[in-house]
């Protein structure tokens, strides 16, 4: 299985029926591909969509209907549109059940950095700071390392997105959960030995001698 | 229609050095005609308030390509290579604002509030130099209102008294910015007789709209 597919499938298991969910750009976007549509989940986007569906067939797109990345989407039955103030009211006001975001770094405290690399690249935070601050649950979905460099570190060196602790970190190697006493390794990807995860992670991990495997059936 | 002006007249209403709000989200819901006209006119030293800078040739993109903008206030500029280069060289002064804070600062100006209190940004770089206000034991940043000389609005439909209706995700910042510009200029996709937009679908009452750009055939 492709690493990104593995991450998306595992995150999809965290989504509750009839919840309101915001998926970030990149790997998080893939999550909706692995979700049972009968769950009745509504996908929200910062630009004011509540109830986004898949990209419509060629010739059936509308330039007024896009996701937060500007890509054409469709609407599911029961969808609605709202302005940007209302959209961030949903996000900041605690009405959003879950947000799934990518990250540049996550640390032992569960802090997330994902909006700038000083001196190199400053894309800006977009809606990320509001999402991480306001969503009921925050999941980081990302590759475990970037070009061989650890992304799960003792303390973020990049500017933080929020002081709020994220709830879960899902990578192609492991599932991690930040708690008061530190970062817990709670699952490992199929056929990935514990030693590999520890080697690819700069942060200290708390774990049982036997870490269970993720269940990601196709 | 008493509100109608030509594109040329609209361009003349915006002097060099003006602060403008430009609606839109990744190029969707942007009044593209006036953007191109301002770029073509070679405006200088504009302060641009916009959610994002889209890509090089979309949304506000042409304004950067034509070096019209001196200061940018936005939430995201990661996908526009011209903006990234101008930021790196120091040509462009940038203030990054979290998106939910940006829209509320604009709304605050538009609805007469002296600012807003938001938990977003507490404990981050965004909080630097800002007052923290504690309400019921929770910390909030005091964020100040953001107004502009001109708000440039894109609407799906506009009627003869300036009532505006928007479409789907092209709504985004439009109804909020239409409250906050001292002069509001709308570039609609169509102009329709009064009564064609049902009252419940009007999201910006015509009393807020100063000028409507009429397409010339």
UniProtKB/TrEMBL annotation, chain A:
Q: Pfam families given for it?
A: CoA_trans
The molecular function GO annotations come to:
CoA-transferase activity
UniProt xrefs under InterPro entries: 3-oxoacid_CoA-transf_B, CoA_trans_fam_I, NagB/RpiA_transferase-like
Keywords, comma-separated and alphabetical? Transferase
Source organism superkingdom: Bacteria
What SUPFAM superfamilies does the entry give? Answer: NagB/RpiA/CoA transferase-like
Q: Which family does it belong to?
A: Belongs to the 3-oxoacid CoA-transferase subunit B family.
The name this protein goes by in its record: Acetate CoA/acetoacetate CoA-transferase beta subunit
From TrEMBL, chain B:
Q: State any single GO MF term.
A: CoA-transferase activity
A Pfam family of this chain: CoA_trans
- What keywords sit in the KW lines? Transferase
Q: Which domain of life is it from?
A: Bacteria
The protein's matches in Gene3D superfamilies, at most eight in alphabetical order, are given as: Glutaconate Coenzyme A-transferase
Q: Show the coiled coil region(s).
A: none
Keyword check for Protein biosynthesis: no
Q: Which SMART domains match?
A: CoA_trans
Keyword Transport among record annotations: no
What the entry lists under PANTHER family is as follows: ACETATE COA-TRANSFERASE SUBUNIT ALPHA (PTHR13707:SF60), KETOACID-COENZYME A TRANSFERASE (PTHR13707)
Q: Which named protein is this?
A: Acetate CoA/acetoacetate CoA-transferase alpha subunit
Query: What is the protein's species of origin?
Result: Celeribacter persicus
């Amino acid at each position: 299985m492709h690493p990104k597919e593995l991450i998306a499938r595992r995150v999809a298991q965290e989504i509750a029926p009839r919840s309101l969910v915001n998926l970030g750009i990149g790997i998080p976007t893939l999550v909706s591909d692995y979700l049972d549509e009968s769950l009745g989940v509504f996908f929200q986007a910062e630009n004011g969509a509540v109830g986004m569906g898949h990209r419509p067939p060629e010739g059936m797109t509308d330039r007024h209907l896009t996701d937060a990345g500007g890509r054409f989407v469709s609407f599911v039955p029961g969808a609605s549109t709202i302005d940007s103030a209302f959209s961030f009211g949903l996000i900041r006001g605690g009405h959003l059940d879950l947000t799934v975001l990518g990250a540049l770094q996550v640390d032992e405290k569960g802090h997330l950095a994902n909006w700038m690399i000083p001196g190199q690249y400053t894309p800006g935070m977009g809606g990320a700071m509001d999402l991480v601050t306001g969503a009921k649950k925050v999941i980081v979905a990302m590759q475990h390392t970037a070009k061989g460099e650890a992304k799960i570190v003792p303390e973020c060196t990049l500017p933080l997105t929020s002081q709020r602790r994220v709830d879960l970190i899902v990578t192609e190697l492991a599932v991690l959960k930040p708690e008061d006493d530190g970062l817990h390794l709670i699952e490992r990807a199929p056929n990935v030995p514990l030693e590999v995860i520890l080697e690819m992670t700069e942060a200290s991990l708390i774990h049982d001698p036997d870490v269970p495997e993720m269940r990601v059936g196709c | 229609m008493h509100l109608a002006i030509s594109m040329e007249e609209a361009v003349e209403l915006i002097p060099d050095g003006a602060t403008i709000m430009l609606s839109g989200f990744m190029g969707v819901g942007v009044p593209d005609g006036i953007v191109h006209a301002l770029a073509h006119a070679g405006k200088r030293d504009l302060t641009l308030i916009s959610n994002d800078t889209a890509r090089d040739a979309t949304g506000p993109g042409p304004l950067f390509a034509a070096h019209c903008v001196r200061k940018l206030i936005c939430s995201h500029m990661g996908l526009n290579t011209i903006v990234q280069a101008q930021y790196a060289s120091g040509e462009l002064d940038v203030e990054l604002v979290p998106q939910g804070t940006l829209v509320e600062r604009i709304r605050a100006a538009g609805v007469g509030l002296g600012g807003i209190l938001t938990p977003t940004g507490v404990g981050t770089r965004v909080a630097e130099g800002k007052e923290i206000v504690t309400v019921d034991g929770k910390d909030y940043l005091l964020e100040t209102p953001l107004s502009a000389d001109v708000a440039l609005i894109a609407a799906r439909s506009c009627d003869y008294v300036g009532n505006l209706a928007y479409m789907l995700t092209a709504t985004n910042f439009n109804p909020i910015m239409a409250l906050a510009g001292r002069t509001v200029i709308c570039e609609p996709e169509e102009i329709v007789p009064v009564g064609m937009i049902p009252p419940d679908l009007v999201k910006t009452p015509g009393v807020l709209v100063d000028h409507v750009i009429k397409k010339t055939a």
